[in-house]
Amino acid sequence: MIRSRLIAAAFLLGVVTAGPVVAQDVATGEAEAPPAPPPSVEEGLAGWQLFYEVASHPRCANCHTGADNWPMWSGPSYGKPQRHGMNINAGDSRVGAEALVCSTCHVTLSAADGGPDPLPHAAPRAATPWMLAPVETEWFGKSSAEICAQVKDPARNGERTIEEVIAHVEEGAFQTWAWNPGGGREPAPHSKQEAIDALSTWAAAGTPCPEE
Amino acid sequence: MGRLKTITRRTFLIGSVAVAGGVAFGAYTVAKPHDNPLLTGLGDGEAAITPYVRIDAEGVTLITPRADLGQGAYSVQAALIAEELDVELDQIRVDPGPPSPAYWNTAFADEAAAFMAPGGGLGESLAYGAISAAIKTFGVQITGGSTTVPDGFVKLREAGAVARETLKLAAAEKSGIAITDLRTEAGRVLLPDGTELSYAELAPLAARITPPQDVPLRDPSGWRLIGKPMQRIDIVAKSTGAMKYGIDIAVEGMLHAAIVLNPAQGGALNGFDATEALKMRGVSDVVEVTGGVAVVADNTWRAFEAARKISFDWGPAAFPATMDEHWQALADSFTEELRDSRVRDDGNVEFAFAEMPGLIKAEYRAPYLAHAPLEPISAIVRVDDDRAEVWTGTQIPRFVQSNVARLAGLDTERVKVNVLVMGGSFGHRLEDEVVKRATEVALLFRGTPIKLTYSREQDMTHDFPRQIAMARMRGTVRNGQVDSYELGIAMPSVIASQMGRQSLPGTGPDSQIVAGAWDQPFAIPNHRVTGYRARELAPISSWRSVGASSNGFFYNLGLDELIHAAGADPMAERIRLCSNDEARKVLETVAEMSNWGSDAGEGRGRGVAFTRSFGVECAMVVEVAATEGGIRIEKVFVAAEVGTVIDPVNFDNLVKGGVIFGLGHAMNCEITYTDGIADQDNYHAFEGMRMYQCPEIEVRGLENGERVRGIGEPPVPPTAPALAGAIFAATGKRLREMPFNKHVDFV
Amino acid sequence: MRLTVNGQTHEVDVEPEMPLLWVLRDELGITGVKYGCGIAQCGACTVHVDGAAVRSCQLPVGELTGEVTTIEGLGQPGALHAVQQAWIEHQVAQCGYCQSGQIMAAAAFLALNPEPTDQDIDAVMSANLCRCGTYPRIRAAIKSAAATMRSA
Q1: Is residue A16 part of a domain?
Q2: pLDDT tens digits, residue range B399-435?
Q3: Which residue has the higher pLDDT, B23 or B514?
Q4: Chain A interface mutation, best of B458, B460, B684, highest count of A Cβ atoms under 10 Å
Q5: I need a labelling partner for B529 at 20 to 30 A (CA). Which of A63, B441, B569, C71 fits?
Q6: Which of the listed ranges B15-24, B399-408, B497-506 does the model predict with the highest average pLDDT?
Q7: What pLDDT sits at residue B46?
Q8: Same domain for C127 and C141?
Q9: Looking at this predicted complex, what is its ipTM?
Q10: Is the distance from CB of B294 to CB of B286 less than 8 angstroms?
Q11: Are residues C12 and C41 in the same domain?
């Protein structure tokens, strides 16, 4: 549904070329509905703002840190943002291979919904090996404009199209964890669906970014 | 030997008693109430032999009355006995021994007596009050107050010496050779012709011989073990996972229990719903205990997990809900009405304040602190109709025994207490709530041993923390020197809180309110130290170095501010003010070790502090660098005067540990309460020092005195103020409250 | 459920969510592995899974893939691991409760990095808490063990 709205909007804007997915959508007849007008730049910016609230939340930003490779601890449990305790540095490998691998403490679950509710303040776990996000995707402490520019820059988003960015939010194991971290941790704000919708609106509006 | 010798001489003689297949040697406690008021509590039948050495067919067993919390007490006590007995440390076994009233910890009472003694200070004499009576009672076989070494230094060596001479008498009788021709070595008596008689084979004969008294102790120059590096007897077990701590012990047929106590400590349990918990696998029952509930299950984890599924209706805490109220209570305590002691009152501070302009004033704070030893508390209790048995790591086995007896309605001697190895304490195991709660559960499961293990969260939030304390300083300087220094210290009484939980009276002056401050060897012309006893707030307990842990900080901080105002050097002015040689020597030693006076370099600073506590003069220099990311503690130099170092390796390890403990808590630890609930429940919020923050530490033990003192606690009090002094030197920032990370970052 | 610990295979009937720590301690009676915090803050529960250091309090036994080694399996008197030997030589332990975890962390680390710098040691070993403050001796023991292992 969301995807079809994005694609419909993208069609109108001509920002993506028709591919098999689009053809399939067309074939199901959804395209027969009267095309919705594309979201305005303001709507797009509002969509971005919502996603920025997600991206800058501790559940995401704590591990989207810069080239010094320090994971961060911030959020309601901490008086002020601080480096991950215990002198933990993920190294250039971003998985701690140089010293202590993240998976020493952060368990890789075999299923996204695996395991019981962890104890408060236990090492969070996901259905993928724990790691820092790639260094190009530095979000911690960055402005909305900076993150916005990064997210739509294929050179800094893992060579993803916007659609792929949205799919990444939808399917990634860390994203699943971020909205269901357990252990009494504050989840990322809004819901995953709202974040996806917001990104879609932003994309359909031409991925406008806020001014600095 | 001076005073210590006199006291111990008066309180015990070494005797022997036959045991199955051998003989045991130990202290025969002599009650002389007129000579020593601390012995008035001994009843009939309590003046019995208290064994320190048992020799039977199994070999030599050393019975070490003081528990090992990690400080190496077993090894040190074994070495003291073995030194005179002529056995090697690898030939012997160690047994912590049963709870017994005759294991007097005379050194603990000694410490209290100094404060209680009339004339101990110039200002007033303190009555021999209820607090001292409580300490007397409490002092029986506790492990605390760094008293293991002072208490055992003479007793244990004498036990070894008397046992050796008795075995030689037995060998003389057996062989017909004169005792003067016999030698002892490595657990054997050697005859002139080379024949060896093992202690084990001589033991039955020795049991029939009256032990000689007044066997002279060997001259220190002839010591084989004392003063030499020794391998701790537990070191292999602790490096291979073989050491069984209290939490590792399993008793046949036991069930596991977890506990949930009202998070608002001391508050009521109004109700609970355990429906979900009771459905969980392995859960036998959920039962009410004092202050909460216990879950009984077939393993620890199932009990813990079920405990998370219970919902509760809790009453409020039995103390003020917010920290503001706690601090306000302390601020309101600096009154004549709440004055607890003023043992130090030299010159006339009021006159000095009136005379000199520029009165300097400051206020200092020290927070509640958890003990948080790495092994959470646990206890196994089995109650039967006519007896009970306890397995737990404790510093107070006699209280454990009597409390279990009382709860179970049994005579004390029907309760057997097995003292287990402890994974740290820092004063935590001077409390026995875990045993009481386990007993309550065990009473409902008669005949089944119940092992109650606290989760880390329950342990930390229901600890009885270090006292919260506040101090107010006033003082003046004259001609570049400190001229007057008044320090008022307000805190609730640790001893009263702790005694209260043992149903002992807690009135009268509490030495701990001013410990580490009233008795510092500095001759400041006008000097007054006053203790104010705040009302009870959160329940508190002894934390490594007790009153001195906060007061060493306050005292040195006040002195630093005055020295700074005088334009003097923190080291030089302390040395100038010293009123005893030991203090001067330790300060001069750390000055030399740290190259004090040389340029520390840009953005770097050194701080010095000195505290005399538990009879030990301890001086420390901390050196820090102010880096972009924050303060980095680079070096620490420590000198301590302990008279005699028994094991230099253990001494070095304990001093370094004390420094790290002191620095870690000063940096980043506090227990605070919101709505009466502790905000910190695990190490993420109560971290202490991690390895990357650990400085280089250089330790020197001075051995100038005839006395012997423990070193577990004395390094802690000067640590925080030395760090504060270093931060001031490096940054100009004066830190007046702990933890310091409220004001500076550490890297 | 089947698991291999110190070369021995065990069959246990437990919930897959049960942390490996408690399976080892309460079901198999292997108590060298310690409970200190339950949330990966102290490291006392460190074991090896196929040679890699793992906090056993965090690992649901159902997620275990590999062979477990505990301190008991690392070495025993007579056949001590170089790290244990160094721990004894330097008399590292005070209370000793954290030391199983410290030793297991150090052994896994030295297997990957036989020539650690002080900074390397601090990077890895800061995740193991010692409340007694034995860090200076741990540092020294790791360097000794590294030297022994290199010359072996």
Answers
A1: no
A2: 999 999 999 999 999 999 998 999 999 999 999 999 9
A3: B514
A4: B684
A5: B569
A6: B399-408
A7: 34
A8: yes
A9: 0.98
A10: yes
A11: yes
A114 and C63 within 8 Å at the Cβ level: the answer is yes
Distances (CA, A) of C14 to A42, A58, B3, C149: 56, 35, 62, 38
Domain that holds residue C39: 2-73
Kindly report the CATH number assigned to the domain that includes residue C69. 3.10.20.30
- Are B56 and B27 within 8 A, CB to CB? no
Cα(A67)–Cα(B82) distance, integer angstroms:
59
Which of B681, B687, B691 lies closest to A85 in CB terms? B687
Contact B596, B635 (CB under 8 A): no
3-state secondary structure of A121: coil
Q: Please, which residues have CB within 8 angstroms of residue B727's CB and are 6 or more apart in sequence?
A: B605, B607, B624, B626, B631, B733, B735, B740, B744
CB contact under 8 A, A88 and C127: yes
Of C47, C54, C44, the residue nearest C96 (C-alpha)? C44
Q: Which residues of C touch A119 (CB under 8 A)?
A: 38-39
Which residues lie closer than 8 Å to B717 by C-beta, 6 or more apart?
B516, B545, B548, B549, B551, B552, B553, B609, B611, B613, B618, B662
Q: Report DSSP state, residue B140.
A: B
3-state secondary structure of B86: coil
Report the 10 Å Cβ neighbour count for A113. Answer: 8
CB B594 within 8 A of CB B637: yes
* pLDDT given at position A1: 39
Listed in sequence order, the DSSP H helices in chain A are 2-13, 20-27, 41-55, 58-61, 144-151, 162-171, 173-178, 192-204
Task: Centre a 10 Å sphere on the Cβ of residue A53 and count the other Cβ atoms it contains.
Answer: 16
Q: What residue type is assigned to position B511 of the chain?
A: S
SS3 content of chain B, % helix, strand, coil (to 5): 35, 25, 40
Give chain B's domains with CATH numbers: 3-105+140-230 (3.30.365.10), 333-369+465-539+548-742 (3.30.365.10)
Which residue's entry shows tokens 């001697």?
A: B413
Which 64-123 residues of chain C touch chain B by CB within 8 A?
Answer: 70-72, 75-77, 80, 84, 87-88, 91-100, 103, 121-123
Among candidate residues C18, C51, C73, the one where a domain is terminated: C73
| Helices B648-668/B719-731 angle, 10° precision | 60
> Which string of DSSP letters, residue by residue, matches B547-583?
HHHHHHHHHHHHHHHHHHHHT--HHHHHHHHB-SHHH
Least confident of A8-17, A92-101, A127-136, B127-136: A8-17
- Here the tokens at position B6 are 């006199």
Contacts of B9 (CB under 8 A, 6+ apart): none
Q: What residue numbers bound the domain in which A190 lies?
A: 39-204
Q: What pLDDT band is residue B230 in, cutting at 50, 70 and 90?
A: confident
Q: Which stretch of A142-151, B231-240, B266-275 has the lowest confidence by average pLDDT?
A: B231-240
Q: Testing the interface with A: which of C124, C125, C128, C142 to mutate, by most A Cβ within 10 A? A: C124
Cα(first)–Cα(last) distance of chain C, in Å? 38
CB atoms under 10 Å from CB of B302, counted, come to 25
Tokens describing residue B266 = 């001391």
pLDDT for residue A103? 96
Enumerate residue ranges in chain C where pLDDT < 70: none
Whole-number pLDDT of residue B140: 47
Give the integer Cα–Cα distance in Å for A26 and A23.
5
The H-assigned helical ranges of B287-356 are 300-307, 323-331, 349-355
**Contacts by A50-55 with C-beta closer than 8 Å and gap 24+?**
A50/A190, A50/A194, A50/A195, A50/A198, A51/A151, A51/A195, A51/A198, A51/A199, A51/A202, A52/A144, A52/A147, A52/A148, A53/A189, A53/A190, A54/A178, A54/A188, A54/A189, A54/A190, A54/A195, A55/A139, A55/A147, A55/A151
pLDDT band at B295 (very low <50, low <70, confident <90, very high): very high
